[in-house]
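Dear all,

This email documents one entry for the complex benchmark we are building for the journal club exercise. For each entry we list the sequence lines for every component of the assembly. Then comes the predicted three-dimensional structure of the complex as a token string, followed by one or two observations. Please use this as the template for your own entries, and keep the labels exactly as they appear.
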Amino acid sequence: MTASPLLSDTALIFGRYARQTLRSKFQILFGILMPLLYLLFFGPLLTGMPLGSTGSSWQVLVPGLLLQLGLFSASFAGFAIIIENGYGVVERMRVTPVSRLALLLGRVLRDAALFVFQAVLLVLAALVMGLRAPLAGILIGFAFVALLTLSLASLSYALAMKVRTPQGFGPAINSIAMPSMLLSGLMLPMTLAPAWLNVLSHFMPFRYLVDAVRSAYLGSYATTTMLYGGLVAVGFAVLAVTVGTRVFRTAGA
Amino acid sequence: MAIISTAGLARTFPSKAGPVEAVRGIDLTVRAGEILGFLGPNGAGKTTTLRMLTTLLPPTGGAATVAGHDLVRDPAAVRRACGYVAQSGGVDPNISVREELVTQGRLYRLGKAQAALRAGELAADLGLCDLLDRKTSTLSGGQRRRLDIAMGLMHRPAVLFLDEPTTGLDPGSRTDLWDLVRRIRADHGTTVFLTTHYLDEADALADRLVIVDKGVIVAEGTPTDLKTQYAGGPDASLQDAFLAITGRSAAPQESTPVAV
């Protein structure tokens, strides 16, 4: 019908799931609850602490909370597909000629849009709490949230297509998300950690992302921290979408 | 003219206890415009065969052509030519009938206007007009089944695969559905490939039956042929023929006396 079926297929799948999200105001706002509580009840504890940063404590905490929002919300995205698999929706779509990449991209782009929207709300709340950061840095932070949620949602859908039961999926995600959060220094920068923990955290890819967003919030953009963060985020996204598409192509085999 | 032909079509699943041969070599020819009943006990390989023919599952052996396209080399062309209605249907309970139909048409690459037009046409044809703006969760069993079939027909497929289309329907809805399947074939020449556990359904609806057991075809022919050959005469019951062919009882369906 059009020159690029991938684009129109992706738009079609995105539209279907975006409408689904818009029907549920609860879903739109619920994901922001946990990081918002951290912002309100944990953030004020840090204002007088020596965090080893040249900026304020909010410039350290808010980037961490943004990626925490992405980490927890996106990694549970697969629950939706377990429910859909129960209705036979995924299989029904897979017998049509629709692009397999679009089946994944339409879903994860909806997720990325939803979580970036939540990230915007969170930053607005943080501004009220006392955050001051350059606009460009804040925008770069949203780009990292988008890339992270795109990647994690892809992997989450892939895992959900394999595991297929909520009983198996929930614990699996929790056992990955918790150590990821702790080891990437989302709450407090890993530069405060003893050497062994600091070294260990370098094996956790999200650490590079949170370091990059903290750097952006301080207004320093042309740094190696930023370069590594960008490379890890893009590399991870390419890997995750490849894995996810593969699962949509071969599921049931 | 053959619209589906398979040669040695096979599927083996790996398992901890060694490979499981779900389908061990199916040689099958379906003529264009035929209503074919695909029968067999539970675990005989019916659904696995259906999942291979609809491109959901790659075969591990053999070859097949569906609507002139090779199943393995050109699955996209096979998908364009086929409609598939799974046992579970496959609509989202929170989405309206209209939105599901239009989206389905768009997945088959109809334009927006075309898809909306086709949805209205099918709704009129299948008695769904008053339901278009209802959520699919509010439909009765019979209405749901008609919607599932409408979903499979949005792109006017040459072949329609139905996996146990009347399971769970009341007798009136079942007869309505049989009429619908006959009408689809009569009006559009659509080839219908259906699996069922109900022998009365196979008897009433199918031009020809193929019976599979343990992953291979064990008998095929018209209902009358099978009764004559395996149960002693054309007036015998298809149930007796089925039991004689498979050497055991078919799916246990104690609650529904019309089934084996």
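Observations: Residues 5-250 of chain A form one domain. DSSP finds 13 helices and no strands in chain A.
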